[in-house]
Amino acid sequence: MKRTLTLLLIALLAAAPAFSQEPPKREFRGAWLHIVGNQRIKTLTREQIQDWFTATLDALEAQGCNAVIFQVRPQADAFYASELEPWTRFLTGEQGKAPDPFWDPLQFMIDECHARGMELHAWLNPYRVTSNDREQLHPDHLYFKKPEIFKRYGRQLYFDPGEPESVAHTVRVIADIVSRYDVDAIHFDDYFYPYPEKFEEFHDDASFTKYGAAQGFEYWQKGDWRRHNVETLIHAVNDTIKALKPWVRFGISPFGIHRNLKDTPDGSGSATNGLSNYEELFADVPAWAEKGYIDYIVPQLYWRIGHPAADYDVLIHWWNDKNYKGQLYIGQSIGTFSEPDLDNPAITQTARKMQLVRELPNVDGNVWWPGWSLAESRGFNLADSLRLVYQKHPALIPAYTDLDAVAPDPVASIHASHREISWKPQPTDDVLQQPHFYVVYRFANGEAIDLSDSRHIVKITRDTHYRPAEKHKGHYQYVITVVDKCWNESKESKIIKW
Fold it and tell me: Tens of pLDDT along 93-114?
């Protein structure tokens, strides 16, 4: 086994350009864990689900991930305990049916992520209600109380984004989550107005007639009105989050093409030829970033390098070069990493894609899709590439200095016993400066303390103690830092030799 791993590492390093040998200290490394359409969960017991979830998190942690984007509201229902919406069908097989014995999957995942030094971003779909016309809604669903704010389109049911109550209800749901759970962020994906159905228009004439003129839109400005509706939701969600907990971020993962060059007379679009967030989904994500309504963007660049209609290389440069406010992470489809490299078909596109992420100055990390498959290493060795090369050292999430740029105080005291190193934080009433995680660094005896080098990070933890391996005793020196809720880092503690 050891020889096999050595040969694998040699092969990976041979395919990786020099840039990748030492991963950066700060990089967002997320993984999407989806619930919608997941037919496995409902067949398992509580213990089996929890075992599967913890095994998934263990694998993602081993692969260097530091955040999980966990779907908690797939279809105007809840993968957590809610008094506003029914339990999701994807947990028990029946919408509105609570788990028995009772447990709360969201709270479970928050606790398990934080115990591993990882963030939990709660992922919600704001408008989708059903995925097909065979799904039954629970009698207590909002649809039966206010059917006028819903629209059928194709085989699916959606909230009408033009109805103010659609916005108000979604905001209530998010306020409930943020106020009751220790989530690190709220996350929306690419579903705003529905993806277009062939030969069918989304039937929102009634709400346009009811509200459009009063909101300042002429009959020929329906597209602008729809974009206004979505922006109204985004603005309200962000204001609500920040009023409750200013450190909780709000992120959007749009379809990878904002606008095509052919649709932008000013030449601002990308050199692509595909569906457009702006034209078809009525989501002006860059505008939300520039106005400070969102904290990060994760465009879904699910194509290969060289794709004729949506080239990954073209799109990652487009998003990087625009340099919108907030942080930019790249939504990565793990399947495309097995595509052959254009210059050297004997290797995959993994090295080139990671080189682009690491070398483009405004790209702050990746989010991997689908996270379940990455954790199970299904069909491709990307998991090994991450674990052994690209994410082989822990990484801090880039600091959200637009929300808070003040570094927390270092630990108040630190000491070593014969078995472990332990420390105490500085007390503070400022929630933004309270410890979110602690970072444990290890250096050889006599080596200069350099916090910029990720090779020295051995643990990111919520514990106030760390137990080094016995074989290290007498050979190393350790320091501890504090990171706050926006990932600002304190100065190091005094040196502990162990």
Answer: 999 999 999 999 999 999 999 9
